[in-house]
Design a protein that fits this description.
Blueprint: H1 13-23, H2 29-42, H3 56-67, H4 72-79, H5 83-86, H6 91-97, H7 100-109, H8 120-137, H9 140-154, H10 161-181, H11 185-199, H12 201-213, H13 215-235, E1 240-244, H14 249-259, E2 271-276, H15 279-292, E3 301-302, E4 315-320, E5 326-333, H16 334-342, H17 365-372, H18 380-392, E6 395-399, E7 405-409, H19 414-421, H20 423-427, E8 429-434, E9 437-439, E10 451-455, H21 472-484, H22 490-504, E11 520-523, E12 532-534, E13 540-544, E14 556-560, E15 566-570, E16 586-591, E17 599-608, H23 613-623, E18 627-635, E19 640-649, H24 652-663, E20 668-673
Parallel strand pairs: 2-5, 13-15
Antiparallel strand pairs: 1-2, 3-4, 4-5, 6-7, 8-9, 8-10, 11-13, 12-16, 14-15, 14-16, 17-19, 17-20, 18-19
Length: 681
C-alpha cells in the first residue's frame, strides 16, 4: 500500500501519560498505569499481523482517546478493551480491580464470540446490536469502538486483500457514519479516507494528485483571503483566528459523485474558517464578510440557531471571492470549533471521575433513535436496515405551530413528524396541515415547513404508511403497533423485500452473446481484411486473449499455442510472464489499418444510482456507433451502481471516445475496461 505507509510508532505508556497530563493535569494517572500493566500482562506473547507486540493496539486506541480529551475511566477501559475477548481475564476481575464503569465499558465493546452456525454478517450484526445497547447506557462504548476501528484501519495493509475490502466496506457503511453522527469529524474523515483508498484507489489517487498539483495555488489563494479578512476585522477591533480548512478526499469524491460536478466545480475545496471568541461576533463577522464579497444565493446556512443533530454549530456562507472563485467561509466560536472536531467527545474534556449527564447527549439523533427502538425484540434484518436508515439520511428542520423545531430525515412526511412529536400522536394521526394547507400524509416535507397534525381517537396506523415513512423510529413504531394489534404485515414485508431486490438490479438488459466470447478469425497474411498481419504465416487460426482483451491501437504480440492457433496478447499482459520460458513461440503481430472489423471489449461503469442511468449510458454508446452485445446492472451498496457491458469497438480511439462520453454523464464516477482498469482522468 503506497498511500498509507505503515510506520512503527515510537510511542509507549509514557507518551500516553504525557498527552493525558497535557490536557488535564489532575487526571488519575495511577489507574491508567495499572490498566496498562494488566493489559500488557494479559496480552504477553501475543502479536499482531504487523509483527508488533499486541499491547501496541490498545495503547494506540488509548492515545487516540486521550487526544480527544476523554476521561481516564474511558482511557483505562480502552487499554483493557480486548482483555475479556482475547485473554483469561473476566468481567468480574476488571470490576473488582478497577470499577464497574470500567468493566461495563470493556464488556460493551467485546465481540460476541458464542454465536455458532450463523453467517459472519449475522454475528457482526449481533455484535453491533449488543454494542449499541450498551451505548444507550453509556455513549463512551461507541467512542472506544471508533478509536479501536481507527487503529485497525491504520494497519489494514497487513490483512489479506479480501479482508481489507470487507473491513473497508464495513467501515464506510457503519463506523464512519456513526463517527459523523457523533460529530467526531477528525476520526470520521480518517476512517473514510483509508476505506476510500482500499476500495477505490484510482479515484483516491486522482483527487490526491490533483489537489497536490494545485496545492501552492490554493494555499496562496487562502493566504490572500486570510489577510483580507484579518485586516478588515482588526480595523473593527474584532479578535479572530482565520485559517484554511482541510477537506477529506472521500468527502470531495462524494460531493463530486452526488452533484455530478468536477473537482474544479466543488465550492468548498477553497474554504476558510473564522474562529472568534463571542457568539455575537459570529453574526457581525458574517455581515462584514458579505460586505467584502457578494454571497451566492441559497448558500447560507445557520447551524448556530439550528444546530445539527450531532451538536455541530457554525455559520456557513459561500461568496464570490477574489478572482471570481466561489469561496466557502465558516464562522464559529472557539467552543463550537472544539465540538466540530470532537463532537460528543468534547463533553468529557476535563471531566475527571464522573459521567456526563444523559441530558448532555440526549438530543443526538443516533441516541434518540436507539432509545426509541426496542433492540432486544427486533430481528437482525430489521435491526440492520433500521439502524442504517438513520445513519445515512440528511436532515431537514420543520416547525410545530408553536414554533418548536423538529429535526427529521430528508424526504420525511407528516407521519414521520407525528411520531417525532409523540408515539400517540403518530398512532392517532388522521390528517395533516403543512403551512396551513391540508396535504396527503405521504407529502414530503421541506425545511421551514410549519406542520400541524390532526388526530382522532379512532385513528390508527396503516400498513401503507410503511411505504413512505423515512425515519427509523416512525417505521419501528408503526410495525410495533401493527404487531401488537395482530395485524398481518407479512405481505408488506414481502413487498418491501421485492422492492429492495428491484433496486439491487436496477434493470437488467441482456442480449444473447456467443458462447465463446473470444473472437475467432481466419487470417490470410497481408490481405488487410481481418485486422492483423502475421509475419510469414497464412491461414492461421487467431484468438484474442481474454486476460487482456487487445484491440487495435494496443501494442501486441502473438503466442503460438499447441493445436489452437495463435493467441494475441497485449505486450503489457501479466500472463506473458509465465510464458517467457518459451520465447521461441512468440511471433510479431501488426494491426492492419482497416477498421471494418469489430472487437469485443468488457467495460464497467461505476455510478451513484439515479433514474434512467442505464438508458442514458446506452444512448451514449449508441451515439458512438457501437454495438452492445450484453449489458447488465446492479446495486453493489446502498447507492452505488455498477454496470457491465460487452461492446464491439473498432480500436482504442473508438473505446476511449465511448468512455469519455459515459464519464461526462451525471453521477458517473468511474469508467474502465474490465481486466485492465483504464481510468479516465
Amino acid at each position: 500500500m503506497t498511500g498509507f505507509e505503515f510506520k512503527i510508532r515510537k510511542r509507549d505508556i509514557d507518551t500516553l501519560i504525557e498527552i493525558i497530563l497535557r490536557e488535564n493535569p489532575d487526571a488519575d494517572i495511577a489507574m491508567v498505569k495499572k490498566a496498562y500493566d494488566v493489559a500488557a500482562k494479559a496480552h504477553e506473547g501475543q502479536v499482531r499481523l504487523s509483527g508488533e507486540p499486541y499491547i501496541i493496539h490498545p495503547l494506540e486506541v488509548a492515545i487516540t482517546l486521550a487526544m480527544l480529551r476523554l476521561d481516564t475511566i474511558t482511557i483505562s477501559a480502552a487499554l483493557l478493551h480486548d482483555v475479556i475477548e482475547d485473554t483469561q481475564y473476566s468481567f468480574e476481575f476488571i470490576k473488582n480491580e478497577f470499577s464497574e464503569d470500567v468493566a461495563m465499558l470493556v464488556e460493551g465493546v467485546t465481540k460476541i464470540s458464542s454465536i455458532k452456525s450463523r453467517s459472519r454478517s449475522y454475528a457482526q450484526a449481533e455484535t453491533l446490536r449488543k454494542m449499541l445497547l450498551a451505548t444507550i447506557k453509556d455513549i463512551r462504548v461507541i467512542i472506544i469502538k471508533l478509536a479501536d476501528k481507527l487503529h485497525n484501519m491504520r494497519t489494514i495493509m497487513f490483512q489479506p486483500e479480501h479482508k481489507q475490502i470487507r473491513i473497508a466496506k464495513e467501515t464506510l457503511d457503519i463506523y464512519a457514519p456513526i463517527a459523523r453522527r457523533l460529530g467526531i469529524s477528525r476520526v470520521a474523515a480518517e476512517l473514510e479516507d483509508i476505506a476510500f483508498y482500499v476500495l477505490n484507489r484510482e479515484d483516491y489517487e486522482y483527487i490526491k494528485n490533483s489537489l497536490a498539483q494545485r496545492q501552492n495555488e490554493i494555499e496562496n489563494y487562502i493566504e490572500n483571503v486570510r489577510q483580507i479578512i484579518t485586516k478588515k476585522l482588526q480595523e473593527l477591533k474584532i479578535e479572530v483566528e482565520v485559517k484554511g480548512r482541510a477537506k477529506g478526499y472521500y468527502s470531495i469524491y462524494r460531493k463530486m459523485a452526488m452533484s455530478g460536478k468536477s473537482l474544479e466545480e466543488i465550492f468548498d475545496v477553497r474554504g476558510v474558517r473564522i474562529i472568534t471568541r463571542d457568539l455575537k461576533d459570529c453574526y457581525a463577522i458574517l455581515g462584514i464578510v458579505h460586505s467584502i464579497w457578494s454571497p451566492i444565493e441559497g448558500r447560507f446556512k445557520d447551524y448556530i440557531a439550528v444546530p445539527k443533530s450531532n451538536m455541530y454549530q457554525s455559520l456557513h456562507t459561500t461568496v464570490i471571492g477574489p478572482e471570481g472563485f466561489p469561496l466557502e467561509i465558516q464562522i464559529r466560536t472557539r467552543e463550537m470549533d472544539v465540538v466540530a472536531e470532537m463532537g460528543i467527545a468534547a463533553h468529557w474534556a476535563y471531566k475527571e471521575g464522573g459521567k456526563i449527564a444523559k441530558a448532555d447527549y440526549k438530543n443526538l439523533s443516533i441516541i434518540d433513535s436507539l432509545s426509541d427502538m426496542n433492540l432486544d425484540s427486533m430481528n437482525t434484518r430489521d435491526f440492520v436496515s433500521t439502524f442504517k436508515l438513520d445513519l445515512y439520511e440528511d436532515e431537514i428542520f420543520v416547525f410545530t405551530p408553536k414554533g418548536m423545531i423538529v429535526k427529521l430525515p430528508k424526504g420525511a412526511t407528516p407521519v414521520d413528524f407525528a411520531y417525532a412529536i409523540h408515539t400517540e400522536v403518530g398512532n392517532t394521526c388522521v390528517g395533516a396541515k403543512v403551512n396551513n394547507k391540508m396535504v396527503p400524509l405521504k407529502t414530503k416535507l421541506k425545511s421551514g415547513d410549519i406542520v400541524e397534525i390532526i388526530t382522532s381517537k379512532n385513528g390508527k396506523p396503516s400498513e401503507s404508511w410503511l411505504k413512505f415513512v423515512k425515519s427509523a423510529s416512525a417505521r419501528y413504531r408503526i410495525r410495533n403497533w401493527l404487531r401488537k394489534h395482530n395485524e398481518d404485515i407479512n405481505k408488506q414485508d414481502d413487498e418491501l423485500k421485492k422492492k429492495e431486490e428491484k433496486k439491487k438490479e436496477i434493470k437488467k438488459a441482456s442480449v444473447k452473446i456467443p458462447e465463446d466470447e473470444q473472437l475467432k478469425i481466419k487470417n490470410i497474411s497481408g490481405n488487410g481484411k481481418v485486422g492483423v498481419s502475421i509475419e510469414g504465416n497464412s491461414n492461421v487460426l487467431i484468438k484474442l486473449a481474454q486476460c487482456c482483451q487487445p484491440i487495435p491501437g494496443d501494442e501486441v504480440i502473438g503466442f503460438i499455442t499447441r493445436g489452437r492457433g495463435i493467441t494475441i496478447h497485449k505486450k503489457s499482459c501479466p500472463s506473458l510472464e509465465r510464458l517467457k520460458i518459451e520465447s521461441e513461440r512468440f511471433i510479431n503481430i501488426i494491426w492492419d489499418k482497416d477498421d471494418s472489423n469489430k472487437y469485443p471489449v468488457k467495460l464497467a461503469v461505476e455510478a451513484i444510482d439515479r433514474p434512467n442511468l442505464l438508458k442514458d449510458i446506452t444512448d451514449e454508446i449508441s451515439l458512438a456507433r457501437c454495438n452492445i452485445i450484453k449489458a447488465e446492472a446492479q446495486l453493489e451498496s446502498r447507492d452505488k451502481a455498477v454496470l457491465r457491458f460487452i461492446l464491439e469497438v473498432k480500436n482504442n480511439d473508438h473505446l476511449f471516445d465511448i468512455m469519455k462520453r459515459i464519464k461526462k454523464l451525471k453521477n458517473v464516477t468511474n469508467v474502465y475496461k474490465i481486466n485492465e482498469k483504464v481510468v479516465l482522468k
